[in-house]
Amino acid sequence: MTIDEAAEVSLMTGLPGATACELCTAASVRPTLWLLLQHPRGGSVLLAACEWCVQAIRRLSAATGGRVVLAVSEPAGRPPSALRSVPCGPRPASLPVLILELMQEVQAADGTPYVVRVYGQQRTDGTWEGWLEFVAVGAAVVLRTDRETTQSSREDLTYWATGLRPVYVQGAFARAQRQ
């Protein structure tokens, strides 16, 4: 594959389960989605992915405006020796998750449109906190608010997110721009 031939990356659900993430190889973390890599000249690879790896892929995609090109610098099938000795341990229980992507977009003063996403994270006391992220369309910019709410459950956080009105979202966007 040459640099101008990009592989297509898709996230999928509903496929047979796996017992470990095939990206970070953390056996203690249950995969939540499947990552499908399709080569532009045919052929595909299906890998189980944990929520940490899925979040990393989504952030890379958002930060690059949806265009990610990965270049391999090591010989195929042989990771750097430093990576081979790194143990994969359990992940913290408070992993941020995408709660809702709003249909509404906001627009910056320069005309750049932003996709609005609500993220949440479980706290050690079992409650959930939520914040908003604004992802620029076609640019490598992601803006984030501080905590916007604390709810007693993930379901309550989802309910809160579905009730966000345009005026609130605009205010949150202004707060995110100041940070």
Explain this structure.
The chain has 179 residues and is an alpha+beta fold. Strand 5 and strand 6 form a beta hairpin. The strands form 2 sheets. Strands 4, 5, 6, 7 and 8 form a 5-stranded antiparallel sheet that branches. The chain starts with 7 loop residues before the first strand and ends with a helix. It has 2 domains: 77 residues, no CATH class; 82 residues, no CATH class. Helix content is 22%, strand content 30%.
Multimerization state: single chain
Low-confidence stretches: 71-93
Rg estimate, integer Å = 18 Å
What is the rounded distance between the termini? 40 Å
The string of secondary-structure elements, in order, is: EEEHHEEEEEHH
Report the helical percentage: 10-25%
Largest sheet: 5 strands, antiparallel
Strand content: 25-35%
- Helix segment tally: 4
SSE map:
Layout: E1 8-12, E2 33-38, E3 44-49, H1 51-63, H2 81-84, E4 97-107, E5 113-122, E6 128-136, E7 142-144, E8 149-151, H3 154-162, H4 166-178
Care to give the gist of this entry?
With 179 residues, the protein is α+β, with helices and mostly antiparallel strands.
Identify the notable features of this structure and list them briefly:
2 domains; three-stranded antiparallel sheet; five-stranded antiparallel sheet; 4 helices; flat; 22% helix; alpha+beta; 179 residues
